[in-house]
Structure to design on (150 residues):
């Protein structure tokens, strides 16, 4: 982004209050990969002292939104990105800070081609949630759509 354009992290922090509430920190954000970090915060712990499941869901969903904006931001004048559905699996106990890494599950060019053809494309975003030692504590798939503006 240029000096006059806000980063995707800045845009999400400005428009999505939960990003600010959870103090999510943005790492790498490209059209191929988005990484967000949830710091260890006692106010958002669960009953075993790790990050609450809802906080991890929000972290992963926010990572998916970041990659969607990076991949399809140039389409915003003609379509609105919307999450359609999500599925999350918690695999291991998460303690301390956690990181969500999102990747597109379908080539961006195919999604745009479907939009160009008059469709309302759907595409998955896969997110891996890891703790500080690198162990995967959760995985999430969010299906997004680009809803054409009417």
């Amino acid at each position: 982004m240029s000096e006059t354009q806000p980063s995707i992290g800045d845009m999400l922090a400005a428009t999505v209050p939960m990003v600010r509430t959870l103090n999510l920190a943005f790492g790498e954000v490209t059209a191929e990969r988005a990484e967000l970090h949830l710091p260890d915060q006692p106010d958002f712990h669960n009953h075993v002292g790790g990050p609450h499941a809802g906080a991890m869901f929000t972290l992963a969903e926010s990572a998916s939104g970041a990659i969607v904006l990076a991949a399809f931001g140039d389409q915003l004048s003609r379509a609105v990105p919307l999450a359609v559905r999500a599925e999350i699996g918690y695999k291991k106990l998460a303690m301390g800070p956690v990181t969500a890494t999102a990747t597109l599950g379908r080539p961006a060019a195919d999604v745009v081609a479907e939009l160009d053809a008059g469709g309302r494309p759907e595409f998955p975003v896969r997110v891996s949630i890891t703790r500080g030692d690198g162990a995967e504590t959760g995985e999430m798939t969010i299906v997004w759509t680009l809803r054409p503006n009417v």
In short: The chain has one domain: 8-148. DSSP finds four helices and six strands in the chain.
